[in-house]
Amino acid sequence: MTSGETLPRGDAAYGAQTRQAGLVVVAHGGQTASTEPTSALQPAVLRMIPVAAAIRHALRGSDAVVERPRFRVRGWNGVLASPVGDLIEALDAIAASGPVPVVLVGHSMGARAAVRAAGHPAVSAVAGLAPWLPRGEPVGQLAGRRVLLVHGTSDGVTSPAETWAYVERARAVTQVAAIEVRDGDHPMLRRARLWHAIAAEFARAALGLPAGDLAAAVTTTAGNPLRTVL
C-alpha cells in the first residue's frame, strides 16, 4: 500500500509489507458527516505525514512497517461509522497475511475509528491524538489492548473533558495512559514536535523496542493523577 492511498481491498496489498516486528497504521481525521471522497491533499491527510515520519524514524533499525492510508470518504456518517469499516477491512487483510502485531495511531476522527477498531484480533495497541470520543463511545473492545489517549488544553474542535471521561471508563477494562499537552491545539501544530515524539514513543513501547525519553509518559496507566501533563 502506497503512503497516502485509500485503504485497499483484499489481502494482497499487505502480504509483502507486514513484518513480524510489527505494523503501525496512522489514521487521519475527517468530518462528522460527509460522503465526499478523501483527497491526498486535504489538510487532515497531510497532517499525518510528519506523524508517520516521526514514527518511522523512531522504528528505524527494526523490521516494523509504518503505513499512512486514506479512508474512502471524509465523514464518520453516524451509524455507518464509515472509517471503522475501512480499518476493519484493512486489518482483516493484514491478519490474512500472517500474525503480526498491529499498532493503530489515529488523530481526531481517525482516533475514534482506531479506538472502535481496536477490538480486532490483529490489534495489540491503540493511540488517540486529539481524539473525538463523544459520550457513550464504547470501551469494551479495548480489553487487553495497550491504550494511550492524548489531548491538548487548547483544543477547540474535540473535547478534552470527554477524552478524560473516556479514560476513566476505559480503565475499567484495560490499562490506559493519558497525556495532557499544555497549549496543545486540535491540528497539533502548537508543540508539534512533542505530539510527534509522543506518537513515536508509544509505537516503540507497543512494539517492545528500547525506551526513549517519553517512555514513562506513554506507559503510565495509574489513575492518580488521571493524566500526565507535558
Main sheet: strands, sense, barrel: 7 strands, parallel
- Strand coverage percent: 15-25%
Q: Assign a percent range to the helix content.
A: 25-40%
Going by CATH, the homologous superfamily would be: Alpha/Beta hydrolase fold, catalytic domain
From the alpha-carbon coordinates, what is the Rg to the nearest angstrom?
A: 16 Å
Give the spatial strand order of the biggest sheet.
Answer: 2-1-3-4-5-6-7
Q: How far apart, in Å, are the first and last alpha carbons?
A: 35 Å
State the total count of DSSP E strands. 7
Q: What is the name of the CATH topology? A: Rossmann fold
Instruction: Give the uncertain stretches in residue-range form.
Output: 8-13, 15-19
CATH architecture: 3-Layer(aba) Sandwich
Count, helices: 8
Our count of domains comes out at: 1
Shape: globular
What is the average of the pLDDT values?
91
CATH class: Alpha Beta
Helix/strand order, N-terminal first: HEHHEHEHEEHEHHE
